[in-house]
Design goal:
Number of domains: 2
Number of strands: 12
Helix content: 25-40%
Strand content: 5-15%
Bound molecules: iron/sulfur cluster
Radius of gyration: 23 Å
Number of helices: 16
Distance between the termini: 63 Å
Order of helices and strands: HHHHHHHHEEHEHEHHEHEHEHEEEEEH
CATH architecture of the largest domain: Alpha-Beta Barrel
CATH class of the largest domain: Alpha Beta
CATH superfamily of the largest domain: Aldolase class I
Length: 433
């Protein structure tokens, strides 16, 4: 059976990338339900988690201050959130007090990585503290214009491992499918800054998707497809449905994964209709990009729980960022919060050496120190793999503190989390002795 190809072109950076299909607007939240979600003690509710995305007090106050003519139903519409995203100097300086450095960076802005923040995520930014973690992750600074040794536009050589446009085939059994160049909020350290947004080269299109789908169909060793971008969950429902159905029907594709930051920056996108679409394509996994515990708001918690309730296994990926989350206390708080919301911390990435990212990059020793500070001090489920995505296309390489300390007299010497040494009788070494 042939799929119905959606008529609208795949979204790229533009003020209204989603078309105007009113059927995709999430229904507005009734004030009775909001009251119920916000004011009814958990034990008195009929359900353990919200069935829609609530509006926190912080969001409500922000809405009143900065969008006085918008309604709560507007705020809950993901289309409204995207149409009203903050992308200009005028808008952002109305909301936060810019430092001269931030001001200069936005005025000078000319890089391929656009400036865009959803109103929801902007509501979480400190108006007065430029060192606030999440503000630093989305507001440009002049350091973005400094290219340092070892940095490159495409440090992971994705373009050299791309058999057809928009598809990266690096590992034997899985592919990365770049669905769109659009994100609702742009992280200043984005690995794909070369291709996202309006100044990048990448333009997703149905024709390009069909080429990528044909490649997967013709490559039987591909059993796992990761949809990424840009952010696949910024695609209209019809596009996502088409893409998921086209890939899922390929007999040798066993699982599909979606990499997204949408539940964190645009939780209103997790609508009942989206959930119905995603549920059709099990087994479907989701990797959610979290940066800091400040992102664990009522809205984001509700989005994660709606996805988990739909039977979608959730993992997180976090980029280790200097002065933002390179702190054991912050990471522990983030990972504990994720587990409470049924998201398994999966990867902690060393920041890729994209152009203008040195102000974000920690030393590798710092990353190992983070894992050392977690291992043994919290449950193993709360500890992600710390990995470096090897420049030049070598793939993800995990790094661990030196727990293995060598061999002696047929025994393996091991160091535990407290620094104490233990001996393990290694059967293989004893046999060969
Ligand atoms: S959400 Fe992902 S693709 Fe989009 S800007 Fe952030 S890191 Fe880049």
């Amino acid at each position: 059976m042939k799929n119905n190809v959606p008529a609208v072109s795949v979204c790229t950076e533009n003020p209204d990338p989603l078309g105007t299909d009113p059927a995709e607007e999430p229904p507005s939240i009734s004030s009775a339900l909001v009251q119920d979600l916000l004011f009814t003690p958990q034990t008195e509710r009929k359900y353990p988690f919200p069935t829609r995305i609530p509006i926190s007090q912080q969001s409500r106050k922000f809405l009143r201050n900065f969008f006085p003519h918008a309604t709560e139903a507007d705020w809950c519409s993901w289309h409204w959130q995207i149409r009203n995203s903050i992308c200009t100097l005028d808008r952002i300086q109305h909301i936060i007090g810019l430092t001269p450095d931030e001001y200069g960076a936005i005025v000078r802005h000319s890089t391929g990585l656009p400036f865009r923040i959803t109103p929801y995520y902007a509501s979480l930014l400190s108006p007065s503290d430029p060192s606030q973690a999440i503000r630093r992750s989305v507001v440009p600074v002049m350091d973005e214009y400094l290219a340092s040794p070892g940095e490159a536009q495409d440090p992971l050589s994705e373009e050299h491992q791309s058999p057809v446009p928009g598809l990266v085939h690096r590992y034997p059994d899985r592919v990365l499918f770049l669905t769109t160049g659009f994100c609702s909020t742009y992280c200043r350290y984005c690995t794909r800054s070369r291709m996202v947004g309006n100044h990048g080269k990448f333009r997703g299109s149905i024709t390009q998707w069909q080429q990528a789908i044909a490649y997967i169909q013709a490559t039987p060793q591909v059993r796992d497809v990761l949809l990424s971008g840009g952010d696949p969950l910024t695609l209209p429902d019809s596009h996502l449905d088409y893409l998921l159905s086209s890939i899922s029907r390929i007999p040798h594709v066993e699982i599909v994964r979606i990499g997204t930051k949408v539940p964190v920056v645009l939780p209103q996108r997790i609508t009942p209709k989206l959930i119905r679409i995603l549920k059709k394509y099990q087994p479907l996994w989701m990797s959610i990009h979290f940066t800091h515990p400040d992102e664990l708001t009522p809205e984001t918690r509700a989005a994660c729980n709606l996805l988990a309730d739909a039977g979608i296994p959730l993992g997180s990926q976090t980029v280790l960022l200097k002065g933002i989350n390179d702190d054991v206390t912050a990471l522990t708080s983030l990972f504990h919060g994720l587990l409470k919301n049924r998201v398994r911390p999966y990867y902690l990435y060393q920041c890729d050496p994209i152009l203008g990212s040195s102000h974000f990059r920690t030393t590798v020793d710092k990353g190992i120190e983070m894992i050392e500070g977690l291992r043994g001090h919290t449950s193993g489920y709360a500890i992600p793999h710390y990995v470096i995505d090897a420049p030049g296309g070598g793939g993800k390489i995990p790094l661990l503190p030196e727990y293995y300390q060598g061999r002696e007299n047929g025994e393996v010497l091991l160091r535990n989390y407290e620094g104490r040494t233990f001996r393990y009788p290694d059967p293989q070494a004893q046999c060969s002795a």
